[in-house]
Amino acid sequence: MESKELDRTLQSLACGKIRVLNKNPKGRDVNPTDSFDFNESFENPLYRIKINSIQLKETVEENKDTTEKVFSDRQYQVDAAI
Asked: Is the dihedral angle over the CA atoms 31, 34, 40, 41 positive or is it negative?
């Protein structure tokens, strides 16, 4: 797993609405020196739990690539409609 994806996943498990993990020291940002352990007081009446990952802001380059991909996908749909 990539470092950025691991940080986002740990942040969502420890700092989100549903806290499955405990983070030491407490805070919103995940640092390499932070430690995590299972939250033994965690309870949820539902059988399944949906845990959303926290999204990082896209860089300018990623935003440009995404825009280009969307444009090319739309171009095929426009051609098909014509």
From this structure: negative
